[in-house]
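Appendix B. Chain record.
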Amino acid sequence: MVTAAGEPKEAPPGKIYLDTYLDGVSALPAEICRVFSTVKDISSREQELLETSEKLTARCLEIPPQTSRNATDEQKKVLAGLRSELEVVHKNLSMLADEKVELTSTAYELLGGHISLLDEELVKFESELTFNLAEQELEHLHQQQADALANRDNRTPTAAAAVTYTAREEFQIKQGDQVAAKTSRTGAPDEWILARVMNVSDDSSTITILDEHADAGGSSSIHHLSPRQVIRLPKPKEKKNAKLFQEGSFVLAMFPETTMLYRAVVVQTPRWQGKNGSWGPYSLAFDDDEDPNNPGYSINRQVAFQHVVPLPRDFKLP
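Structure tokens predicted for this chain:
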């Protein structure tokens, strides 16, 4: 496999994980076959010993008991010998049974170990597969952008391009930034999620974001949005250029223990924490978040500084 530049491309880590597992599991059938072959041999030996035991028992029953008056000394001696042979046979049978149990446990551990290893490798492979799907989607997007640029009349820049470029400069959105992203359809109530920027097109008209908390491999994890649908999250350690929202103003904020952003009103602005060198949390009251102990009043919730952004002017409530 080679890249567009003609350079060799390394195999994805997921394939390496799978090949490593297959190398280890390839010898498993032979190991299991050896175990079961040994168990089969032991069973054959057991069968022979059982037949011997039956014959010895039958001979013992033909001889009068040692306590019988009719038993001669010779018969008592023969009977004692037969009983000794039976004890040896039974002892050997017990040893063979223990050996079969031990071999069966070995086979179980072999299979269990490989199953556990397979579970671990599948988790790694699934993670790499999700990443590779996102990478392929980006490559496809890059190709579409290249085709569009090749066919575009460069002599007449569109107004839309100028607007998006200005938006790009204003918010300074770049690859790797954590952002608030609007994923709802046009005309539908606003839905904003926590996401990360994977790519910004050359003309700044499209921003590709990844919902880091979507189901692995889900098609809904990647979105191609316009700059108007993306807001860069503030940095909690930037004191000089920090934009604070005053008490009573509406904001867009991430609800605690979720990755969704909703409208809220500022109850208390954050304070600079010199000891930590960062901004403290906002105190916010979210829409429809009523305190069950105080009907008619909202719960004041603490929200991290970096999870509060301006409320869009065209924000549409449910």
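Further analysis of this model is presented in Appendix C.
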